[in-house]
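Internal ticket #5521
Category: modeling
Description: The requester needs a full-assembly model to guide mutagenesis choices. All entity lines are attached below as received. Residue total reported by intake: 336.
Assigned to: D.W.
Attached entities:
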Amino acid sequence: MMELLAALEVSAFATWVREASTIWAYPTILTLHTVGLGVLVGANAAFDLRVLGFGRQIPLAPIEWLFPAMWVGFWLNAITGAMLFSADPIEKGTTALFMVKLSIVMVGVVLIPLLRRAVYSRRCAALAVTPLAKTFAAVSLVVWVAATVTGRWMAYW
Amino acid sequence: MTQLDAWLDALFAATTLDESTIVFLKGTALAQWVVSTPWVWPTAEALHFLGLALLVGVIGLLDVRLLGFMKSVPVAALKALVPWAVAGFVINLVTGMLFFTAAPDQYMHNLSWWFKVLFLAIAGVNMLLFETTQRSRMRAMQPGDDTPPAFKVIGGVSLVSWLMVVYWGRMLPFLGDAF
């Protein structure tokens, strides 16, 4: 495993991300990672708040597109995150905080389709918020807050 | 020197803090506390990113409606979520001022920070224009109505300026060599 991380660290791509003296390498990848966070956590938070009872007048059917939006944010961050990881794999690959963040993100990702199904796959005509949907929304909100905090903290610890 | 250069110099002179103010800010108890307490800056950064997500998520949804999508959602219904965006903004204003007080020269002397402030101002004026000039039109809208061109312009300007605020904020350590 360490050999793999070491090989990744010295690869041409990792070296470019880490050392290229252009804003298009590390700075732009990091900024895209922040934009992806805004799309994923932002869309998720807005939807969670609606399910938890804020903005009750917002009909549910026309905001289902927030789920594809969350996936766009997720994939943007999976890709940019892998690029950022490649720049510093030995350090990040052995840091507990990074493992904690990855685990939290995995829980969040599993919750995305669960929340969508809980709200939209009801047999009856009118969409309504069930206690299960509210539970998924509340957990989802907490999970993405935790993912954001642990991700941001990777720059310090 | 062109007229534009003269204006820019005057603007910079009028808005840039002088050295004594920078020294004063760095000497305040707040700045000393931020610099000497290891968990403060990282915690404020984490809060700054949570505020970002809250603000961008809620305002982005409203902007998409103003652009003419989700026609069956009343604009007024979406505005019920806006207090959450305001909460995100307040979190970021407070944490942002904390960073600024602790390291004023690092922001003041960085062009990226000025671009961030510029786009914050554009987003703010844009929002005020919506609230002051479009209120009656917003109230008169029926579900299913397309949005008038003014709404589309305001929604587009809002979306682009908040994206620019995020961009110049995140690029700040890399552009201008301040950190």
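Resolution: model delivered.
Comment from assignee: The two ends of chain A are 22 Å apart (CA to CA).
Ticket closed.
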